[in-house]
Specification:
The chain has 58 residues and is α+β, with helices and mostly antiparallel strands. Helices cover 52% and strands 21% of the residues. A 3-stranded antiparallel beta sheet has the order 1-2-3, covered by helices on one side.
């Protein structure tokens, strides 16, 4: 997590995964909320992609 003084925003990215997942917030609380939303969106996307991959292999 980093803080950008120019834009007055906290931001971060998930590490040690193959995808790029970013999150940001104007306050630590908003950063935490966006972090959780980013995780949820990433999980949903990976599940959808896996389902499409399985459907194509049938």
């Amino acid at each position: 997590m980093d803080y950008d003084e120019e834009y007055n925003i906290y931001h971060g990215k998930l590490l040690d995964i193959h995808d790029l997942v970013l999150y940001e917030g104007e306050t630590p609380e908003k950063l935490k909320d966006d972090f959780h939303e980013a995780i949820d969106r990433h999980i949903e996307l990976r599940e959808r992609l896996e389902a499409e991959k399985k459907a194509k292999s049938l």
